[in-house]
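Table S2 (text version). Query chain:
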Amino acid sequence: MAKLVLSVLMIVIWWMLHALQMDEELAMGTVHEAKRAVDRAAHAAAQQIDREKLEMGVLSVHPEMAENAAAQYLRGNLALDAGLKPVSGSFLRDPVEVRVFEILNENLEYPYTYRNSQYQYEITLDRPGVVLIVHVKYPRLFGVLAPVEWNLKGSAELVY
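Corresponding structure-token output:
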């Protein structure tokens, strides 16, 4: 009888460990998908050239167009609504928060090293570009465990 009880307990523990491993794999898949979305959004934002300044020979990112492009790419790649909240069918459950959206334009001397000590992020850009830091929360499958949260960082330069 003791062996039977021990066997049942071992099976339950094995199932719990297997479920936790599956949850970790889903979290890693989520962070990779979200990171790709942040990179795409930063790249799309950086490509929004200010045509009026370009006519004068100045490479510059158009701020409003860049912000709109970044938001559109985040919404499209993460299945979010206009308020950056997940729609049905999204792999996220909590809203996405844009923590940093900075446009580094022609008023800086390039190469320029951008530093953000709050998020431990540093990047050197050779021409105007965009820095984007987005906060994403992955809800655990088991309510006992706390959600996993990331500040995903992306940046891109204007390509001409």
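Notes on Table S2: Residues 2-157 form one domain. The longest helix spans residues 2-46.
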